[in-house]
């Protein structure tokens, strides 16, 4: 098979040690271009934590899963050692098979190898072979060795259970060893069946020869005196290893990302893992920030006096927050300024004020009463099932403690940093983050929090690398300790070596130069190396953001989210206010394309004054188009405002969260009625593709709309059944998942049947690798955050359309996100020199309509 080549077989080798044997085999893979140099070290590192000796003189060294990104393409190197080399005590290897695997392509080789181990004559022929081709023939596609245990249909034993294997990379040696160790504790026979093939659970070789892949259904059965106990134990070990295997897969994806970003530590520094919140590297000394909790004594002065003190404190803090909002808007942006307008509303919440008043009337002091009410309401927010809404408890505490300081008569607890540092804290408030000086605060790392917190949002906007949810170990790092913070992978490296610090500084310099060069070319169109032009637009919510996006290189606005007009206020904007905003957007764009999405609230965007029903699962409830069709009092004024703005320049209207064709017909009908009443011009009417039902039926939907815009964030969430705001699961909601890519491919294919264009306005469009794959799938327009435009344009200019299509096909053929992310290396080399079919390992087939 393609993984085996005579050039990767060395006969008559005589390594003195196991380490030399592994290094020699790894060097063969390196010289043939299958791996980067670091993977040889990974092969050796694996041996320190696991024994790769299979038995019968065969060893299978393979690298650590977290270093999979160092594999350029899957390959196998074979070292024949006729005299043998001591592997471990009592173990002598005569055949060393080094495996470098991007995913599980090597399983077929491993399967044949384990079967050979049951055929001593066949194995001896390989060990004594005088021609490398004999070895290839024995392990290649034509090989048909006698199996160690016949792979024939077998009846299950009487007691049994069925289970789908949830290990992302299938069953490999490490977890299989744990199964075998567990099975051997029992006297009963235990059988594992995968399809028609079965094996003893007490034989590592037999289990591996089954070639069990991720998701495969297994039947585990037992016969004997302790069969029930044996099955219970085996089920427990199979299930208990799932989190560990999934963590290994995530580590592999992180390593792939690291390879894409270009920096990984060369030594092995102590690292504290967290969740990446703002990308980039920061190098410096630690400064611990320990916030103090304010616990006032209960000193009542009488209800009238305490009531007046509370009113004065609330009024003063509201004014403070207004000033902070204005300053943040000037310094960071209008959207970020809204954080503090929202905080102002939080402390004015009638229920919070009423609860404080009850305590005061009951004879307690204003400060003590406010503290109690504040904690009660913050706890109430934390208990809300929606993680994004629960995260707003931090905003309430942030603003609430401003009030408390006023009531206690103490100065502000400002965060002061007097020297360039990497700030570590249990958590950071939005106020702390918004007032930081990026010249002094090189990076941020918190023990708690999530990637959707306002601290994380502000850090990304300020361009400060940041990590959240790093746990209690973070707080034990002493002030002044040198660290490297990787905000992309979410790692804090403690006391890195001088070599790592120097390489990180080189990476920073290279990255700064790359950004400078991309910025210089940002106004140039995104034209692939073979002349295919891609429209690159921006996601912008307000006219000032649209103007900034044009300066960043945007050719239009691919998504204007109108819900931001409805948030952080006490009542809905009327038709006049909306018409003025939409007209201003049209004026700023000056004839360039603009897609305006109608109101999309519900889910993670709740608007109190709309009095929406409380739902168990708001993401599956009344949101987007469903709300618009139920609330004509909101929807029709918005349509009127949009059509009024359309008299002054081109715009398109897009409906969110559509799930049925009946909804499309109703939405178009309402839009046409409003347009006719106003005598306004016709405009393109499109829909968001956010749920699998629309992607699967794209050809049918395309008959009823003028365009599609794929919202990859929600499409990913609904496809993978993962709440993208969940603090523990959010990392799984990755839009590079092959299932999501196949739905995008299906959408494009359906649109092409009716000649409709397709855009993408989700986060995947702003990922350079994602952009290449989307263009390869036939997407016409990419819309993203303005800051991502220069990098995406540069990446698209570096590839040909032919190469992008081949990379997209390979992505459709992948099984995991890590495999897709590993295609970054192919993109790096996919310039004009690539012709059709030239990329190694290109996926040989595709879903219908993949290329357009």
From TrEMBL:
Keyword Cell wall biogenesis/degradation recorded: no
Domain PTS EIIA type-2: 2-142
Localization (cell): Cytoplasm
The keyword Transferase appears for this protein: yes
Superkingdom of the organism of origin: Bacteria
Residues covered by the HPr domain: 158-245
Recorded family membership: Belongs to the PEP-utilizing enzyme family.
Identification of the protein by name: phosphoenolpyruvate--protein phosphotransferase
Native source organism of the sequence: Anaeromyxobacter oryzae
Organism lineage: Bacteria, Pseudomonadati, Myxococcota, Myxococcia, Myxococcales
């Amino acid at each position: 098979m393609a993984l085996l080549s005579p050039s990767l077989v060395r006969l008559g080798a005589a390594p003195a040690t196991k380490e030399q044997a592994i290094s020699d085999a790894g060097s063969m893979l390196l010289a043939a271009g299958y791996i980067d140099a670091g993977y040889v070290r990974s092969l050796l590192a694996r041996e320190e934590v696991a024994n790769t000796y299979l038995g019968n003189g065969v060893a299978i060294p393979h690298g650590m899963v977290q270093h999979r990104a160092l594999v350029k393409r899957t390959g196998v190197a074979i070292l024949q050692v006729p005299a043998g080399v001591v592997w471990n005590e009592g173990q002598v290897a005569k055949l060393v098979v080094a495996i470098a695997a991007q995913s599980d392509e090597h399983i077929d080789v491993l399967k044949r190898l384990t079967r050979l181990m049951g055929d001593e004559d066949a194995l001896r022929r390989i060990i004594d072979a005088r021609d490398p081709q004999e070895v290839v023939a024995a392990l290649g596609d034509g090989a048909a060795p006698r199996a160690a245990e016949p792979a024939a249909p077998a009846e299950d034993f009487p007691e049994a259970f069925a289970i789908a294997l949830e290990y992302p990379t299938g069953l490999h040696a490490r977890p299989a060893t744990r199964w075998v160790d567990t099975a051997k504790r029992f006297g009963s026979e235990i059988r594992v069946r995968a399809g028609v093939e079965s094996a003893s659970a007490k034989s590592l070789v037999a289990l591996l020869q089954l070639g069990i892949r991720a998701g495969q259904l297994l039947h585990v059965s037992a016969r004997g005196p302790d069969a029930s106990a044996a099955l219970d134990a085996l089920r427990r070990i199979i299930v208990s290893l799932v989190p560990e295997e999934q963590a290994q897969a995530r580590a592999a994806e992180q390593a792939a990302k690291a390879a894409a970003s270009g920096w990984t530590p060369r030594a092995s520094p102590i690292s504290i893992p967290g969740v990446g919140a703002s990308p980039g590297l920061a190098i410096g000394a630690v400064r611990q920030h320990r916030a103090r909790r304010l616990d006032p004594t209960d000193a009542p002065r009488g209800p009238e006096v305490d009531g007046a003190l509370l009113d004065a404190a609330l009024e003063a803090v509201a004014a403070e927050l207004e000033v902070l909002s204005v300053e943040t808007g000037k310094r960071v942006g209008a959207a970020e300024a809204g954080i503090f307008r929202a905080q102002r509303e939080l402390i004015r919440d009638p229920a919070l004020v009423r609860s404080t008043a009850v305590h005061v009337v009951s004879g307690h002091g204003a400060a003590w009463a406010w503290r109690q009410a504040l904690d009660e309401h913050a706890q109430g927010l934390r208990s809300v099932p929606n993680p994004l809404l629960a995260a707003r408890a931090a905003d309430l505490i942030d603003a609430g403690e401003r009030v408390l300081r006023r009531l206690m008569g103490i100065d502000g607890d400002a965060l002061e940093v007097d020297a360039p540092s990497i700030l570590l804290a249990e958590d950071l408030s939005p106020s702390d983050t918004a007032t930081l000086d990026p010249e002094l605060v090189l990076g941020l790392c918190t023990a708690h929090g999530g990637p959707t917190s306002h601290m994380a949002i502000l850090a990304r906007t300020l361009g400060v690398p940041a990590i959240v949810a790093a746990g209690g170990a973070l707080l034990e790092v002493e002030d002044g300790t040198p660290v490297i913070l990787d905000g992309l992978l979410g790692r804090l490296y403690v006391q890195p070596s001088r070599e790592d610090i120097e390489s990180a500084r080189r990476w920073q310099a290279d990255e700064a130069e790359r950004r400078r060069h991309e910025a210089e070319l940002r106004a140039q169109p995104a034209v692939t190396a073979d002349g295919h032009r891609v429209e690159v637009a921006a996601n912008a919510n307000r006219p000032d953001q649209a103007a900034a996006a044009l300066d960043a290189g945007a050719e239009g606005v691919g998504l204007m989210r109108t819900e931001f007009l409805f948030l952080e206020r006490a009542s809905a904007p009327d038709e006049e206010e909306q018409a003025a905003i939409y007209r201003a957007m049209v004026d700023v764009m000056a004839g360039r394309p603009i897609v305006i999405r109608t109101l999309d609230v519900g889910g993670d965007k709740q608007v109190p004054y709309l009095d929406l029903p409380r739902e168990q699962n708001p993401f599956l409830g009344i949101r987007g188009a469903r709300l618009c069709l139920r609330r004509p009092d909101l929807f029709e004024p918005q349509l009127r405002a949009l059509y009024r703005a359309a008299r002054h320049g081109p715009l398109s209207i897009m409906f969110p969260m559509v799930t049925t064709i009946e909804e499309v017909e109703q939405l178009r009908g309402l839009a046409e009625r409003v347009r006719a009443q106003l005598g306004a011009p016709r405009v393109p009417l499109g829909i968001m593709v956010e749920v699998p039902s629309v992607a699967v039926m794209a050809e049918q939907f395309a008959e009823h709309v003028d365009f599609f815009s794929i919202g990859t964030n929600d499409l990913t969430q609904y496809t993978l059944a993962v709440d993208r705001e969940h603090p523990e699961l959010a990392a799984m909601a990755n839009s590079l998942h092959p299932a999501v890519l196949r739905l995008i491919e299906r959408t494009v294919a359906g649109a092409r049947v009716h000649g409709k264009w397709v855009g993408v306005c989700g986060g995947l469009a702003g990922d350079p690798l994602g952009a290449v794959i989307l263009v390869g799938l036939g997407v016409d327009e990419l819309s993203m955050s303005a800051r991502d435009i220069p990098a995406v344009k540069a990446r698209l200019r570096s590839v040909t359309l032919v190469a992008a299509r081949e990379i997209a096909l390979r992505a459709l053929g992948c099984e995991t996100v890590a495999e897709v992310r590993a295609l970054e290396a192919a993109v790096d080399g996919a310039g004009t020199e690539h012709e059709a079919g030239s990329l190694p390992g290109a996926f040989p087939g595709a879903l219908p309509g993949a290329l357009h």
